[in-house]
């Protein structure tokens, strides 16, 4: 009854990317994404979380315990703010709330 969600974003001299893994009993999704070279590590981290939420919503996952594993303190702090400075952070917060409407989110 639990889905584990792992997200990560990174930037190197070779480019910028992010990925998520969703894993539960009889459920496994993984998606690596390449972002534009102008994207920051922060944007990559938030994008990974946003895309994971979009997939959960797309697959109509409900009545699950969803545990997010996010290693970006900056992303978590940005999501906690009442007012969002970033459109991406605002959209991600909205998607997390939508996921939480149908699931228990940790």
Description:
The chain is α/β, with parallel strands linked by helices and 106 residues long. 40% of the residues lie in helices and 36% in strands. The chain has three helices and five strands; from the N terminus they run βββαβααβ. The protein has a five-stranded mixed sheet. A hairpin with a 2-residue loop joins strand 2 (15-24) and strand 3 (27-35). It is globular, with a radius of gyration of 13 Å. The chain starts with a strand and ends with a strand. The mean pLDDT is 96.
Radius of gyration: 13 Å
Structural class: alpha/beta
The assembly state of the depicted protein chains is: single chain
Q: Please provide the ordered H/E string of secondary-structure elements.
A: EEEHEHHE
What fraction strand? 35-45%
The number of helical elements comes to 3
Q: Which overall shape is indicated by the principal axes computed on the Cα atoms?
A: globular
Strand order of the largest sheet: 3-2-1-4-5
Report the mean per-residue pLDDT as an integer: 96
Task: Give a brief description.
This protein is of the alpha/beta class and 106 residues long. Helix content is 40%, strand content 36%.
